[in-house]
Design goal:
mainly alpha; about 150 residues
């Protein structure tokens, strides 16, 4: 199987600490993080993805909103520039330890966080990055090396 992931969730995954919009969302995101930690690939998608799935029946769900689409576009540009490869719908990525460490270093330094502007979770994510990603569900391999 392959995990369907939208671009801004690449950033969310870096700091995901088991908190979310609902118990179903949190359980789903935790399971996705475990699958990625086990080496499962992701395929980039446009619009709602596997992380969004538990929220899609909620009329207040923001997963299809224009602001989220803009956030995805910015995250895709930032991550593509960092990795030197396209991050577009249909592209497969293996988020192995080296890729995650590179992304986390850039995130901690603010290099790939422009898509996070205005996000309700931005302060929490900033604090998690400042603490070396120690509290994340997807463990950081060398927290001291990843600090800003």
């Amino acid at each position: 199987m392959t995990i369907r992931l939208r671009a801004h969730h690449l950033l969310c995954l870096l700091t995901y600490a088991g908190k979310g919009y609902s118990p179903a969302f949190t359980a789903g995101f935790t399971a996705i993080a475990a699958r990625i930690a086990a080496g499962e690939a992701v395929v980039m998608t446009e619009g709602p993805d596997d992380v969004c799935a538990p929220m899609l029946d909620d009329p207040a769900c923001h997963c299809r909103g224009d602001s989220v689409v803009r956030c995805d576009a910015q995250a895709a540009r930032d991550v593509a520039a960092l990795l030197g490869r396209p991050v577009a719908p249909g592209q497969r990525l293996v988020l192995d330890r080296a890729v995650l460490d590179r992304m986390r270093r850039a995130f901690a330094q603010g290099g790939i966080r422009s898509a996070c502007a205005g996000c309700d979770w931005a302060d929490l994510c900033r604090d998690i990055a400042a603490d070396g990603f120690a509290a994340t569900v997807l463990p950081a391999s060398q927290p001291d090396r990843l600090r800003a």
